[in-house]
From TrEMBL:
This is 3-hydroxybutyrate dehydrogenase. One of its GO terms (biological process) is monocarboxylic acid metabolic process. InterPro entries: 3-OHbutyrate_DH (IPR011294), NAD(P)-bd_dom_sf (IPR036291), Sc_DH/Rdtase_CS (IPR020904), SDR (IPR050259), SDR_fam (IPR002347). Gene3D superfamilies: NAD(P)-binding Rossmann-like Domain (3.40.50.720). Coiled coil: none annotated. PROSITE patterns: ADH_SHORT. Signal peptide: none annotated. The lineage of its organism: Bacteria, Pseudomonadati, Pseudomonadota, Alphaproteobacteria, Hyphomicrobiales. GO terms for molecular function: 3-hydroxybutyrate dehydrogenase activity. NCBIfam families: PHB_DH, PRK12429.1. Pfam families: adh_short_C2.
């Protein structure tokens, strides 16, 4: 019996990177999982089936687009219908776009606010009634070091992540007496496709080479000079789901190699 046996988790943006690590960590602890996100159908099916065979739990896929409120509510409903409840919700889907503000495409601003901030509101709104009914719940939002500090050329991302930190505190207070906790995790740089994809634009925006972006921009922010791993972030989420973490709520937990200590 794993520590999460009998629990069911929804992880948004879990076809890749940190989200996939959360889903696999919960499944390893015995939870059934709803995975979500984009990618090729073959790759997604491979990851879904691998979760089931590696951990002997049930894993289903929701194709919900995190820019679409009705699809987000449908994803929570799918989890409740398939498994009987959604006990753990991780709002993790996110995208990045790097540009000076005067050139920042308006549709990119809207898309980042929708995926990185509003989708968490819609998912929490849909999941809280079921958690209240069961008298137990864990809501974890992937924020970022950019929920605490800013970097130039990331206006939408930094705004959305500061918003996630505020949403986390508000929800924590609203559900505090229902044995539901709500926290956010704020990683520094984790080597995932999201980080890799922003390197060309950062090279352009700052006039740097790829190596300079990795060493002088990304790792420069982290005193340890190492990337955080997706598995380390997932291990923290797993702890937040434990009974030992029942009194941790409304917090913003940094896992950033010391970045925000400076
Ligand atoms: P990633 O690109 O590997 O994964 C992002 C996931 O979100 C993918 O599964 C993708 O398909 C999904 N997604 C994107 N748009 C979506 C949409 N409209 N609907 C549904 N799913 C969608 O990135 P990652 O680095 O694993 O990022 C995960 C989260 O961690 C994000 O919220 C990101 O802001 C945050 N984060 C990442 C880092 C880092 O350094 N990688 C640092 C701090 C915070």
């Amino acid at each position: 019996m794993g520590s999460l046996s009998g629990k069911n988790a929804v992880v948004t943006g879990s076809t890749s990177g940190i989200g996939l690590a959360y889903a696999r960590a919960f499944a390893a602890a015995g939870a059934n999982v709803v995975i979500n996100g984009f990618g090729s159908p073959e790759d997604i099916e491979k990851e879904r089936a691998k979760i089931e065979s590696d951990f002997k739990v049930k894993a289903i896929y929701s194709p919900a687009d995190m820019t679409k409120p009705a699809e987000i509510a449908g994803m929570i409903a799918l989890g409740e219908k398939t498994f009987g409840s959604v006990d753990i919700l991780v709002n993790n889907a996110g995208i990045q776009f790097v540009s000076p503000i005067e050139e920042f495409p308006i549709e990119k601003w809207d898309q980042i606010i929708a995926i990185n901030l509003s989708s968490a509101f819609h998912a929490i709104r849909a999941a809280v009634p079921g958690m209240k009914k069961k008298g137990w719940g864990r809501i974890i939002n992937t924020a970022s070091a950019h929920s605490l500090v800013a970097s130039p050329f990331k206006s939408a991302y930094v705004s959305a992540k500061h918003g996630i930190a505020g949403l986390t505190k508000t929800v924590a207070l609203e559900v505090a007496t229902h044995k539901i906790t709500c926290n956010c995790i704020s990683p520094g740089y984790v080597w995932t496709p999201l980080v890799e994809k922003q390197i060309p634009d950062t090279m352009k925006a700052r006039g740097l080479t790829r190596e300079q972006v990795i060493n002088d921009v990304l790792l420069d922010a982290q005193p340890t000079k190492e990337f955080v791993t997706s598995e380390q972030v997932a291990a923290l989420a797993l702890f937040l789901c434990s009974d030992d973490a029942a009194q941790i709520t409304g917090t913003n937990l940094s896992i950033d190699g010391g970045w925000t200590a400076e």
